[in-house]
Amino acid sequence: MGIYKKNGDAELESSRPTVRYAAPLTIAAAPVYVADAMGFWNDEGLDMKVTYFDSGRKALDALLSNNAEVMSVSETPPLRAYLAGSKINMITTVAEHKEAKMTVRTDRITNLQDVKGKKIGTVAGTNSDYYMYRWLEANNIKVSDVTIIQLDAAALSQSFIQGNIDAMFAWEPYNYNAASKIPNDSESWPTELYSGRHTVEMNSEYSKSHADVVEKIIRGFIKAEKYIKNNPDEAKKIVMNKTSMSKEALNKLWDEYTYTVQLDDGLKDILNNETSWIKSSGDSSVKGDMSDLVNPTFLLNVDPARVGGVFKS
After folding, report:
1. Which of 1, 82, 168, 231 allows an S-S link to 121, with CB 3.0 to 4.6 Å?
2. Closest by alpha carbon to 274, among 296, 290, 262, 292?
3. At the topology level of CATH, where does 10-98+196-311 sit?
4. Which residues, 6+ apart, have CB-to-CB distance to 276 below 8 Å?
C-alpha cells in the first residue's frame, strides 16, 4: 500500500510535497496515526512528516511558529488562538469524543459537595479546561469555592498521583493513566455536558495557496476513517503503539470516540458556546468572533455530504 521510493524513483519522490504534521498523543488523534502508519497520505502523493507532542496545545504552537503546515487538536486551543488574531483555519474534524473528564481522588471526594474547598488541576486553554468551568457552573459550584491549579499535561497526572491536587480535568489517556496508578483511591466521573471534536487546522494563507495539498490530506483522513471502522483491532494496535496505552485501557475507552471526517452542525454550537466562555473570562487578547475560523471549502470539494448545512450557507 502506498507509493514508496524505489531505485529509479527519485524524480517521483522529489515531486511529492513535504507536509509537516504536528499531532498530539491522544486517542482522539487515531485517524492521524492510522493515516500515517498505513501510508494513506503517501497514496495521495504527499510526503507527510508527523511529529508528536504530549498535548494539542504544544502541537498548535508548532503550527503557529511555522514549524508545521497542519496540526490537530480538540477545538478549544485553536479557537482561542484564532480569537487572539492567529491566521488559521479549521478545515475538518476527524473525531467526536467525550474524553474531557473530571478525575477525583475518592479518598477525598465522594460527592459533589466534597469538591468545595478542594484543589483542582487543569491545563489552561484546553477543552478539558472549558469542561471544568462548565462542570462547576452546572453543579452550582463557584470558582471561588475551589482552588484551581494550572499545570502542564504531564505534571497534572503526576500531581494527582502524588496527592498535591484533589481532582483534575484532563483528556485521555491522562485521566486513565493517573487513575490506574491509584485504582483504590480514584475514579473518573462520566462526561455528560459536552462532546468535543478533534479538529484539523492549517495556516489560512498556506491552505489557500495549496488547495490540492489540503484536499489530499482530507482524502487520507477519509481512508483512515474507513480503515478504523472496518479494522478496529488493527487500528487499536496502531493507537497503542503511538500512545503506549495498554490493550485493556484502550478497549475500555474506545467507545467514547466516533471517528468521522465532517464539519457537522453541532460544531458551530460548540464554537459559539466556547467563544462566549472565552470572552466572559475577560481575556484581553480576544479580538473578534469565530465566524471565519471554519473553512469548509476543501471538504466541500472532496465530499459535500460531510458538511453540515450551517457551513454551506
Report:
1. 168
2. 290
3. D-Maltodextrin-Binding Protein; domain 2 (3.40.190)
4. none
